[in-house]
User: Fold these one by one.
Assistant:
Number 1:
Amino acid sequence: MRDLIIRHRGGSLDERVLGKLWDLSRKAAASVDDGNCRSLLSTIESYGAQLFSESGHLKFARAEMSGAHFLRLQILRELDAFHMRLLQLQLEATQDAAATLAANLRPARR
């Protein structure tokens, strides 16, 4: 998804790129059972819908940057948060596995 957003500037209707973004987002959501991840991906889809629309990006314009650029930055920020959440989930799973292994290796008390 990151490469898609970096390669495509947005700011106009592009159903092909939007469809690809949504497809990747839905595949990512299906691969992880976490509400926070699904929420981040939903936000990415919403921003993407505005970015790759005829005029939805215009309401995000700032004095210093276009609405399309702002949306691209927001999507990249959400993707970073998604990646961090995946790392957190991976760390928690590793810690749980290590604790289970340690508990199974302890000698039984008599």
Number 2:
Amino acid sequence: MQSLNGIKSSRDKKDPLLDISRKIYLSYKTEVFRDDEEIEFYIINSISKYFNVPFSSVQVCGSAKTGLSFHKEKKFITCESDLDIAVISLELFNKFAESANEISKGYSDLSCFPLYRGNRTDKQFKWNFLKGFFYAEM
């Protein structure tokens, strides 16, 4: 797995984390689509069109990109593992932030945030929002 070798090499050389991230996520090929790049193109192109963002703003990340989940320490398994996608767009982020603010009436009505596994999601939303991202399961 090219990504894993790149991580180990960069770690051994004590490269900055930003450089390691750029190498893996913006330079290396996506591990799980290495033998079927047409599917990767179709997925990224579809997301790009759906959200009306540049193609380059859509990136495969997580275990699909590297072939291994570093948090769960297990390999990506097609049709079982999650396919994590990042859409990097300030315009889209602002659009969703404005929608959330409007729907929740300035965050005074938190009932619009669904329950997930029996827990309220408004706190998780706020935590992620302050870090600069939204999370959605599709």
Number 3:
Amino acid sequence: MTDKTPIKMLHDRLLVELDKEAGERRSAGGIVIPATAAMGGRRLAWSRVVAAGPHARAVEVGDRVLFDPEDKAEVEVQGEVYVVMRERDIHAVAADRVADETTGLYL
């Protein structure tokens, strides 16, 4: 396999890249909270879809999706780390095209 071999996701699988900014957070008061800080309960993460299998119905390439990072399988492709998951493991989709189904929440 060469470095430029195309990749096709199968079934309902998604290939997502984690948000680079997801590591650190800021409190309402402006205090920087490092990614290593322990939080009560589980914290979900946002990522961007870079590839989707043909049976993914509610998610498209470029969408931001919310998922549980503890249920992830990581893969390295050309030096970049991505996460592979099934569409059913996504909790929410953020994209302009879902505006018709508005919830009153915006990113």
Number 4:
Amino acid sequence: MSNVPTATDTKLVIFDGWTLRVHAPANRLAAPRMLVLLHGWTGDENSMWVFTKRLSPNYWMIAPRAPHAAEPSGFSWRPMQVGAFGGPSLEMLSPAAGGLIQLIDGYSASVGVDSTQFDVIGFSQGAAMVNVLGMLHPNRIRKMAVLAGFVPAGLEEAVHKKPLMGRRVFVAHGTRDQMIPLDRAYASMALLEQAGAQVTYYEEEVGHKLGAAGMRALENYLQD
């Protein structure tokens, strides 16, 4: 399998007020679907390409920059709030989730790619966004990968409706993650299972990142 280009080999695009980095497959007719890459807190449109090196070059990939500035640098999927503790909630993230759906619809229509259903990978805060998208817009998501992430507070009502019934969800977490502790990953997996998901879980002795074995597990999950 050919390696997918890194961020330096992709194209920077400004579309409808969003900044995003795009990988368009050489053979557009071979593109099976769109893959959306959602960076974590203080990341940007360049951060997620490290996860694509072993993925199919036939994906049409977009990595949008989150809409809010973060401190000390980079960007965030929720507005900066002084004194806010406990991580972003559904209330904080849902406006960006709605904006992402509009972006995906508009951009895919502009380039002629079918995004009726798309795959999505998120890291850390971006993984929380993946969970929000999956819970609120389950019919739009084909596959969702939650890397070093969590289910944000406020999704309890959505969980009870079992929006992810029968859906395979990939979750990977490091046993030495000090930013998002392992017990929070376990609690998040329980919520995903309550929502009906069949969780494929990969645990690795790393910190707040995905190791080499986790990358191979992610590749296997996204293959079909």
